[in-house]
């Protein structure tokens, strides 16, 4: 379809970047990026009209996002850029070639282009040796200033290296280290840095990438107190086990595993340092509150449980519920990884699968009808009924009402 539209408009259409890279590596990738040798926005708008897609243009960048009716997205870029030097003056139009356009990219493996026009369909353009680097499993920059132009590429380099089991080419690694030494990575803005870190922590196996970040001196660019020592290695290994175990519980509670990895990465930091990291990364207030606000309390409660287990103490369902209820799941999992105790994991599993969703069945109005006064008394009564239900003393609503009457 895209090739046909290109033919109709008389412009060359190429799939570029990650899509082509992954196609050649036989990896799934649904993010299609295309480049139009011409006006990409005009192409996107015409294509969108013909195929019932929504189009979001970004005039300043000459790009557009095409959203298909089923929600899939297509990124369209132009090799023709228009610069408005000052308002009211005609734009300077620079017609860049595809080669020139691809030269601005990060690594050779991301510079391959696949023609989609009918007469050259499937022809692969490889200006910078990307195919050979894919074969040799190498991540290589296109020129010496790549990390200077965009220091976030240091994180991207590690991400591709670890995800694809590639190696940084030695010269590229040298350039990356120089960029770190020159303080360029340290100066990356908080939001961008956070974005890169999240992407790394969202990888299938973030441990290796984090280790590599430490090796290449990237962790201190986030905070000088961050390290990845043997204790971190142990914590990360344990967390991998905890997350695998959690998946097997098949719970519906939404979980963003990257937040748990994030907590593990910040494990060594004290509270003021935590705050510094959050500020450095310009972390949204809500996220900060969710994963850090309750950290101290959560770890203390888990510690309490652990000690009780150590003493051989019986823990009732209602006690367990009271301790763990309302605790963000990320913190629970992080706390479990920290404790490394199987018995505690069994208990938390029992809470998550059997207790977390239990509720008292009688309503406040029903309790008022029974004569319980409005206000805190209702809450206290509901808590009492819930505890009784959790501990198996009552099961039905009638039994709850009966207990409330007493
Ligand atoms: N790119 C770049 N420098 C950056 C970010 C992106 O040169 N700092 C280029 C890369 O060549 C990349 C393309 O822009 O191929 C698209 O970026 P993105 O969608 O982030 O990369 P993908 O290669 O698709 O990576 P992923 O598989 O992780 O989505």
Overall description:
Helices cover 54% and strands 10% of the residues. The protein has 22 helices and 11 strands. The strands form 3 sheets. A 7-stranded mixed sheet has the order 3-4-5-2-1-8-9. Helix 7 runs parallel beside helix 9. The protein is globular, with a radius of gyration of 28 Å. Residues 87-95 have low confidence and may be disordered. By secondary structure, it is of the alpha+beta class. The structure holds cytidine-5'-triphosphate. Cytidine-5'-triphosphate is lined by residues 17-18, 31, 33, 105-106, 110, 150, 152-153, 156. Residues 17-18, 31, 33, 105-106, 110, 150, 152-153, 156 line the site of cytidine-5'-triphosphate.
Secondary structure: elements and pairs:
Elements (H helix, E strand, L loop, with lengths): L1 H8 L3 E4 L1 H7 L7 E5 L3 H12 L2 E5 L4 E5 L5 E6 L1 E4 L8 E4 L2 H6 L9 E3 L8 E2 L4 H7 L1 E2 L6 H4 L3 H12 L2 E2 L1 H12 L8 H12 L4 H10 L3 H4 L7 H19 L8 H9 L5 H10 L4 H9 L1 H16 L6 H8 L4 H11 L2 H14 L8 H6 L6 H15 L6 H9 L1
Parallel strand pairs: 2-5, 10-11
Antiparallel strand pairs: 1-2, 1-8, 3-4, 4-5, 6-7, 8-9
The site of cytidine-5'-triphosphate (CTP) has 11 residues, from helix 7.
Hetero compounds: cytidine-5'-triphosphate
Instruction: Give the termini distance in whole angstroms.
Output: 73 Å
Number of helices: 22
Strand order of the largest sheet: 3-4-5-2-1-8-9
The structure class reads alpha+beta
The whole-number mean of residue pLDDT values reads: 89
Strand content: 5-15%
Count of β-strands:
11
User: What is the radius of gyration computed over CA atoms, rounded to a whole number of angstroms?
Assistant: 28 Å
Organism: Trichlorobacter thiogenes
Family: Belongs to the tRNA nucleotidyltransferase/poly(A) polymerase family.
Protein name: tRNA nucleotidyltransferase (CCA-adding enzyme)
